């Protein structure tokens, strides 16, 4: 009888040990990613203290735990097509009017200099009392256009870094065979032909390339009463690493996976373009100034002259009416 009890006890202990080992194995696999997961996911597991989790990360960081899911993603871009250039537009879920203007203007240019160009919009979850109605409208809009990519983070200005990192996740997973992506804000008019000409130029790098309106020696703002204040407890340095302004920047499509690969080493701040600069610094890849800074205009004097408009790539506008007006002039092939 004693031998039988000892045998039963031994069996139970072995079973418990096996369950614990299996749990630890499955948990490790979940963190590191399955064999078919993107490479950046396989190497991004860190102790939980390395970066903020789902709980409120405070006013200067964002919660980016790398397990947001895509809940709307039936665009053919990078799945049944291989565009040379993807135009990725982060935009508020409710802003249907601006999406429609972009679809009718520069977002409608699909074959430029012989290269395929495709435009998609990325959104998070709508908020407010009418969130369910907004979500239903988004579904209907996507059934019509098939150009919306939605992830299950809360869409807000403070969460722009999350939006950017989720965008990079999607690009790394789907678009490695394409050449370039431009992240472009919804209030920008884009001269697509000038952009493609720049990218096709033999002097433009095809890897480790990011350009836009690059801010060099951008100071970390210490005045707590102004926008973008950042305390020393978050960033000790007096300057941010160089980064292209978030209004519009271009990167070669080897970069999304590389940025994601080092991002787990840097606690994400809510200033999305500055955070990208921090990731680029960790990679040892500085951004590149465009051949002419007049290609990217953040505070232009409106109306822009024909000569200036003929050279521009990305131009910030003050209204969709102004965006449409500039695009019509661009279509007329304005020159100096």
UniProtKB/TrEMBL annotation:
Domain of life according to the entry: Eukaryota
Cell compartments where the protein resides: Golgi apparatus membrane
Membrane topology: Single-pass type II membrane protein
Pathway: Protein modification; protein glycosylation
Ranges that cross the membrane: 7-26
InterPro entries per the UniProt record, alphabetical: Glyco_trans_31
One term of GO molecular function: N-acetyl-beta-D-glucosaminide beta-(1,3)-galactosyltransferase activity
Cellular component terms (Gene Ontology): Golgi membrane
Record key words, sorted: Glycoprotein, Glycosyltransferase, Golgi apparatus, Lipid metabolism, Membrane, Signal-anchor, Transferase, Transmembrane, Transmembrane helix
E.C. no: 2.4.1.-
Keyword Transmembrane applies: yes
GO term, biological process aspect, one: protein O-linked glycosylation
Similarity comment: family membership: Belongs to the glycosyltransferase 31 family.
Protein name: Hexosyltransferase
């Amino acid at each position: 009888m004693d031998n039988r009890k000892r045998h039963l006890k031994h069996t139970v202990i072995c079973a418990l040990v096996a369950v614990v080992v299996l749990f630890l194995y499955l948990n490790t696999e979940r963190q590191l990613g399955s064999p078919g997961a993107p490479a950046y996911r396989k190497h991004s597991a860190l102790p939980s203290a390395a970066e903020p989790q789902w709980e409120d990360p405070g006013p200067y960081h964002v919660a980016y735990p790398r397990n947001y899911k895509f809940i709307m993603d039936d665009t053919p871009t990078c799945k049944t097509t291989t565009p040379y250039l993807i135009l990725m537009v982060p935009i508020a879920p409710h802003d249907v009017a601006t999406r429609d203007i972009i679809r009718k203007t520069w977002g409608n240019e699909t074959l430029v200099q012989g290269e395929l160009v495709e435009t998609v919009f990325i959104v998070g979850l709508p908020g407010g009392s009418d969130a369910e109605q907004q979500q239903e409208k988004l579904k209907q809009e996507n059934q019509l256009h098939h150009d919306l990519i939605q992830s299950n983070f809360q869409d807000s200005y403070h969460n722009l870094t999350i939006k950017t990192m989720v965008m990079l996740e999607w690009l790394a997973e789907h678009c490695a065979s394409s050449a370039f992506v431009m992240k472009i804000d919804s209030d920008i008019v884009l001269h697509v032909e000038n952009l493609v000409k720049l990218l096709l130029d033999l002097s433009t790098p095809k890897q480790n390339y990011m350009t836009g309106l690059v801010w060099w020696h951008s100071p970390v703002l210490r005045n707590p009463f102004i926008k973008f204040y950042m305390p020393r407890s978050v960033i000790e340095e007096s300057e941010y690493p160089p980064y292209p302004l978030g209004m519009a920047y271009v990167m070669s499509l080897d970069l999304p996976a590389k940025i994601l690969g080092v991002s787990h080493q840097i606690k994400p701040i809510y200033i999305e373009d500055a955070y990208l600069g921090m990731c680029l610094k960790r990679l040892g890849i500085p951004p590149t100034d465009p051949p002419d800074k007049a290609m990217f205009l953040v505070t232009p004097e409106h109306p822009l002259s024909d000569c200036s408009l003929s050279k521009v790539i990305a131009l910030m506008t003050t209204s969709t009416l102004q965006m449409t007006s500039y695009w019509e002039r661009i279509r007329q092939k304005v020159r100096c």
